[in-house]
Design goal:
By secondary structure, this protein is α/β, with parallel strands linked by helices. The chain contains 7 helices and 7 strands, in the order βααβαββαβαβαβα. It has a 7-stranded parallel beta sheet, with helices on both faces. The termini are close together.
Length: 176
């Protein structure tokens, strides 16, 4: 994996994800922290939209504990319909304005060299699918879906043509 940057996507509702997948919530959180620590130690910049109390915010907080790291937050600062008050701006070093929520997924994907998926949700699926549009001409970008964090793979007719790599957490940590 290239050491440019890593977009981090994951479900906002950790309790719901754990309930639906049968994961223990505390074990899930500890695995996210372990993953964030390793990525920070390797010097990756991360790009994310940190909903408060989400898997992504948990990741960002653990990542933040290491010096020399950079978190770029993608915020829909112009969104008049929904706002963005539930995002944690304090965890970010830099905040980039993506316009509105309808542009957020596209912005994260365009701005990221690779994506790291902390579990599936409707928003995450949109972000994954947007890579099909914005990464068409990239040969070195990947979507790393951590198998420990999902109940099942995406249907083949959705995943077809997308650069998805399903990988167990332990194996992914060894590649960093």
């Amino acid at each position: 994996m290239h050491k440019h940057n890593l977009g981090v996507v994951g479900p906002a509702d950790v309790k719901k994800l754990c309930s639906q997948t049968g994961m223990d919530e505390q074990a899930y959180i500890e695995k996210i922290k372990q993953l964030a620590t390793k990525i920070a130690e390797r010097g990756y910049e991360i790009i994310l939209t940190p909903d408060k109390n989400s898997s992504v915010e948990t990741f960002a907080k653990a990542y933040r504990e290491h010096p020399g790291t950079k978190i770029t937050g993608i915020f829909p600062k112009e969104d008049k319909d929904f706002g963005f008050g539930w995002l944690n701006s304090e965890i970010c070093d830099v905040i980039e304005n993506c316009g509105t929520w309808t542009e957020q997924e596209s912005y994260v994907v365009k701005r990221s060299q690779n994506l790291l998926c902390l579990g599936f949700s409707r928003g995450v699926i949109i972000e994954i699918c947007k890579t099909g549009m914005f990464w068409k001409n990239r040969t070195d970008s990947k979507i790393f879906v951590i198998r420990d964090f999902i109940a099942e793979k995406l249907p083949h007719y959705i995943a077809e043509g997308l650069p998805i790599v399903y990988v167990k957490l332990e194996a992914f940590l060894k590649t960093l």
